[in-house]
Automatic annotation (TrEMBL):
It is an enzyme of class 3 (hydrolase). It is found in: Cell projection, Axon; Cell projection, Dendrite; Endoplasmic reticulum membrane. It holds the Pfam family Carn_acyltransf. GO terms for cellular component: axon; dendrite; endoplasmic reticulum membrane; mitochondrion. GO terms for molecular function: carnitine O-palmitoyltransferase activity; palmitoyl-(protein) hydrolase activity. This is Palmitoyl thioesterase CPT1C. The keyword Transferase applies. Residues 784-804 have a biased composition (Polar residues). It catalyses: S-hexadecanoyl-L-cysteinyl-[protein] + H2O = L-cysteinyl-[protein] + hexadecanoate + H(+). SUPFAM superfamilies: CoA-dependent acyltransferases (SSF52777). Palmitoyl thioesterase specifically expressed in the endoplasmic reticulum of neurons. Modulates the trafficking of the glutamate receptor, AMPAR, to plasma membrane through depalmitoylation of GRIA1. Also regulates AMPR trafficking through the regulation of SACM1L phosphatidylinositol-3-phosphatase activity by interaction in a malonyl-CoA dependent manner. Binds malonyl-CoA and couples malonyl-CoA to ceramide levels, necessary for proper spine maturation and contributing to systemic energy homeostasis and appetite control. Belongs to the carnitine/choline acetyltransferase family. It comes from Hipposideros armiger.
Length: 804
């Protein structure tokens, strides 16, 4: 989601003098260090993997194998073909009375070697099977005999009862695409947005790159791909996120919303108690690897490496680059309320505190009348809007003066913000209330979230929840998985009493929450004031717009036999063209977790086929069947790009890695420079719903997550996120900058609704839907909004009048 902003902005951070020093190291040394980091991560997980089961085998399988060998030996059979006798000869001679013991030890050693060889064979076989991606490239709904055979073999070799990290050693490495294919696909992707003259210049630069630098850079990438776990992910984390010196707020965080139409309890402390308890239950399951790995088609596992850093994680600022600090455990949360910081223990001697006990602790904080100390209230603005190098210098002083308080915050499981204002959907002004809700989650007041933490849980005064997530440690599906569990658990599993409090009884023996005290010298006040000013500027410039589109949803798109994501992406192309009157590079995030430690790839959704469809929709001479034909071609092209990205054959991560390698080798490439100076005026992302079984959308259709959003990528661009809520609603989250004269989040929202209705009306099942702006002249696009239909924002508010 928010990665698009960082992906665009990473290049300037490499051009500074301080960053250039980092590239003075030899490239082979960097490849060696990259592989060393990968192997350290593997070794750190080995012992845990052994204790929880050598998947797909288990310790019990070793016992079974050893027993079988002993039985065969008792029956005077030798399954080792003489190897056990040779092992016995190598063992020390302890005398005749220990002859039987030597036989048992020889059998145990042989069983262990055979068991290890079988496990290794299973891992290799499963890795080879998982390297097959033909199933992904097949048409939707069709399955070849080869894929059916592959599915059967995967089922056989996958074992039973996998845990979260069971498949990690069997996942294939992300392949390095052919550089010729990457350049060809790149040129194809930019052709719709470039003039003939500009495209010819770009093609010349591309051919020069292929002739002069490509082969050398590609060879080094190939070398890294064999030594490191992933040829691009560690550089992606470092150069796109950790080396960025920009403010984190808006640029590197995204938000997740609560239920849209219901609030389980209006009691703030109670909602905080249940939510914190649910989050810590998720951490407990995570530590025990009881969370099931995500499987595509119920069979193909995705990489689970990103789950490791959800909790107990902080992004620590540095002068040249930040680093991620992850603790093995933390038994407290840091809480912010009315400018004050508190440390709240989450465990007692008997284990995790109950939701009612946590509610009691949060209520004590809410009832505490003590005021904030000077400048303490705005301290967190340093994490929000201060340049990272400046914050690193201030943090050094802060660590000297207030080490205990800083450690309590940075060492917490996560950060909790008890907001003093209500937020969420209201009947009085549903449109404005949703926009304000999104803005509060994305930016807040600029000083009431600790943006360095992996995530901040935000609890508003009316019981509404939200999440603000820092992006460097993982991508949205990971935090989304946790958030789905949290909402379902705190609402359906834990629940609330009739008076809105957590179930259970308070514990008066619990000590009071610990107030944190900061020693802030006078010289620090200036930095805090500067950071606060920058945070208010960033916050005030963000234009957030959220609206639920309820004319149709995923069920309608499925009846049209189309990919729901491709349907929305083509509608977004149509909406953006009507808004701006031109096409632009479009960033859509796709996951590459089919590979070990994979993160994301870019789908360049603005294709030639999409442009042909958009032009036809605004051409009065084109008939509906003609438009529908072009629409299906555009959808097929988008599906092909998406599948290529997921299977490691995308464009942007390969070009990114080539660019980083060129910097290490001090090779100047005008082509790569041009690639990484592109402007992405439309960044899009779908928030997946991963645990449908947790929510009963048929009986409780309002109890579904309403997704989240992120800041705009470009100063004159849009950030658009969407989620399918149940079967009949799509919620859109749109952001832009108020300072831009070219963008307007509400205007784009109107265009999106009209585009969706227009596209749906091309199908027989959608003929009854209200039409939008078919035949809008190109010269008028981006200006005619008065004829567009009004949103359906809050249209369902009257259905649940008691739940706001």
């Amino acid at each position: 989601m928010a990665e698009a902003h960082q992906a665009v902005g990473f290049r300037p951070s490499l051009s500074s003098e301080r960053a250039e020093v980092e590239f003075s190291a030899p490239v082979l040394q960097e490849i060696y260090l990259s592989g060393l980091r990968s192997w350290k991560r593997h070794l750190s997980r080995f012992w845990n993997d052994f204790l929880t089961g050598m998947f797909p085998a288990s310790p019990l399988s070793w016992l079974f194998l050893f027993s079988a060998i002993q039985l065969a030996w008792f029956l005077q059979l030798d399954p080792s073909l003489g190897l056990m006798e040779k092992i016995k000869e190598l063992l020390p001679d302890w005398g005749g009375q220990h002859h039987r013991l030597r036989g048992v030890l020889a059998a145990a050693l042989f069983a262990s070697c055979l068991w290890g060889a079988l496990i290794f064979t299973l891992h290799v076989a499963l890795r080879l099977l998982l390297s097959y991606h033909g199933w992904l490239l097949e048409p939707h709904g069709a399955m070849s005999s080869l894929t059916k055979t592959w599915l059967a073999l995967v089922r056989i070799f996958s074992g039973r009862h996998p845990m979260l990290f069971s498949y990690q050693r069997s996942l294939p490495r992300q392949p390095v695409p052919s550089v010729q294919d990457t350049v060809r696909k790149y040129l194809e992707s930019v052709r719709p947005v470039l003039s003939d003259e500009d495209f010819d210049c770009t093609a010349i630069l591309a051919q020069e790159f292929l002739r002069l630098q490509a082969s050398l850079l590609q060879w080094y990438l190939w070398l890294k791909s064999w030594w490191a776990s992933n040829y691009v992910s560690d550089w992606w984390e470092e150069f796109v996120y950790l080396r960025s010196r920009n403010a984190l707020m808006v640029n590197s965080n995204y938000y997740m919303m609560d239920f849209l139409y219901v609030t389980p309890t209006p009691v703030q402390a109670a909602r905080a108690g249940n939510a914190v308890h649910a989050l810590l239950l998720y951490r407990h399951h995570l530590n025990r690897q009881e969370i099931l790995p995500t499987l595509l088609m119920g069979m193909r596992p995705l990489c689970s490496a990103q789950y490791e850093k959800i909790f107990n994680t902080t992004r620590i600022p540095g002068i040249q680059k930040d680093h991620i600090r992850h603790l093995h455990d933390s038994r407290h949360v840091a809480v912010f309320h009315r400018g004050r910081f508190f440390r709240v223990g989450t465990h007692s001697q008997s284990g995790l505190l109950s939701p009612r006990a946590l509610e009691q602790q949060f209520q004590r904080i809410l009832d505490d009348p003590s005021p904030a100390f000077p400048h303490e209230e705005h301290l967190a603005a340093l994490t929000a809007a201060a340049p990272r190098d400046m914050w690193a210098q201030v943090r050094r002083s802060l660590k000297t003066q207030s080490e205990d308080a800083l450690e309590a915050v940075e060492g917490a499981a996560f950060f909790v913000s008890l907001d003093s204002e209500p937020k969420g959907l209201t009947r009085e002004d549903p449109a404005a209330s949703l926009d304000a809700y999104a803005h509060a989650l994305l930016a807040g007041r600029g000083h009431d979230r600790w943006f360095d933490k992996s995530f901040t849980l935000i609890v508003f005064s009316n019981g509404k929840l939200g999440l603000s997530v820092e992006h460097s440690w993982a991508d949205c599906p990971i935090s989304g998985h946790m958030w789905e569990f949290t909402l379902a658990t705190e609402c359906f599993q834990l629940g609330y009493s009739a008076d809105g409090h957590c179930k259970g009884h308070p514990d008066p023996s619990l000590p009071q929450p610990q107030r944190l005290y900061w020693d802030l010298p006078d010289k620090m006040h200036l930095f805090i004031s500067l950071a606060l000013r920058g945070a208010k500027t960033l916050s005030g410039d963000i234009d957030c717009h959220v609206f639920p589109f309820s004319h149709f949803g995923k069920s309608f798109i499925k009846r049209c036999h189309l990919s729901s994501d491709s349907f929305i992406q083509m509608a977004l192309q149509l909406a953006h063209f009507r808004d701006r009157g031109q096409f632009c590079l479009t960033y859509e995030s796709a996951m590459t977790r089919l590979f070990l430690e994979g993160r994301t790839e870019t789908v360049r959704s603005c294709t030639r086929e999409a442009c042909n469809f958009v032009r036809a929709m605004d051409d009065k001479e084109k008939t509906d069947p003609q438009c529908l034909t072009l629409f299906r071609l555009a959808v097929d092209k988008h599906q092909a790009l998406l599948k290529a990205a997921m299977s490691g054959q995308g464009v942007d991560r390969h070009l990114f890695a080539l660019y980083i390698m060129s910097q290490f080798l001090h090779l100047q490439s005008p082509f790569l420079d041009q690639v990484h100076s592109e402007q992405w005026q439309l960044a899009t992302s779908q928030i997946p719903v991963q645990q449908v079984h947790l929510f009963d959308v048929h009986n409780y259709p309002d109890y579904v997550s309403s997704g989240g959003g992120f800041g705009p990528v470009d100063d004159h661009g849009y950030g658009v996120s969407y989620i399918f809520m149940g079967n009949d609603t799509i919620t859109f989250h749109i952001s832009s900058k108020k300072s831009s004269t070219k963008t307007d989040s509400h205007r784009l929202g109107q265009h999106i609704e009209a585009a969706l209705l227009d596209v749906a009306s091309l199908f027989q099942e959608g003929q009854h839907l209200k039409r939008g702006c078919r035949g809008l002249r190109e010269e008028d696009s981006g200006h005619r909004t008065s004829s567009l239909p009004c949103h359906t924002k809050g249209s369902r508010a009257s259905m649940t009048p008691n739940n706001f």
